[in-house]
What we know:
Elements: E1 8-12, H1 14-17, E2 20-24, E3 30-32, E4 38-43, H2 46-55, E5 62-68, E6 83-88, E7 94-95, E8 102-107, E9 117-124, E10 127-132, H3 151-162, H4 189-201, E11 205-209
Parallel strand pairs: 1-10, 2-4
Antiparallel strand pairs: 1-11, 2-3, 4-7, 5-6, 5-8, 8-9, 9-10
Amino acid sequence: xxxxxxxxxxxxxxxxxxxxxxxxxxxxxxxxxxxxxxxxxxxxxxxxxxxxxxxxxxxxxxxxxxxxxxxxxxxxxxxxxxxxxxxxxxxxxxxxxxxxxxxxxxxxxxxxxxxxxxxxxxxxxxxxxxxxxxxxxxxxxxxxxxxxxxxxxxxxxxxxxxxxxxxxxxxxxxxxxxxxxxxxxxxxxxxxxxxxxxxxxxxxxxxxxxxx
Length: 212
């Protein structure tokens, strides 16, 4: 009810597993999902063991490359059409993308099948939902090439799910301008990354926020 009544949901890694309509077993025998906030199906936890063994990950996380959609969208603005590196730590394989779901990032290397969705968004009632298999909020560890986490993407997610009023002139004006002309509240980068890191420690991220 929270999201349907105008709340926001960001599901990263484990938070993405519980967001879909169903969770899929390895042989695609579908079972009920936990929340049903997005019209997608995801591969269930056994995929984590397969994926991490396949990648021969030594620290339970690796670097993956994703392509950002060419279509303008507030979550990926102003970097649409680019390729970026992200931290992956056993997030779900998002399949059977249904009506109303907008793919934002797709894998371009063989972590999954090339072209599979890594991040997508949709509306649920009067609320907004974003899920991501890799971690845009996670800083890179010493064992990885230090290309930097994608904090801009994480902050865009936060803004999009908490404030739907965007300028009708988007993308020609900064998407952070509301219809009534007031800017979005500033979200400190350090605070956002700290929140993501702390939630990552206790498992996959399920971040629920409220609108003003």
